[in-house]
Amino acid sequence: MKKTHEFEMTINGETIKWQEKSHAQIFRNFWTYFMEKDLQKTIHTIKLAGIRTSDKEYFVAKNGGKKKNIHVKDDLWVYTHMNPEAMERVYKKFINGWEKNHETMEIKTSNDESNQEFELEVPTKNDEIVSGDSLLLKNKEKRQFIQDEVLTTPEAIELLEISRARLSKMIKDGKITPAKKLGCVSLFWKGDVIDKKKELVKLRKQYRPFEN
Question: Which long-range contacts (C-beta less than 8 Å, at least 24 apart) are formed by 189-195?
Answer without folding.
Answer: 189/123, 189/149, 189/150, 189/151, 190/148, 190/149, 190/150, 190/151, 191/123, 191/127, 191/149, 192/127, 193/151, 193/156, 193/159, 193/160, 194/159
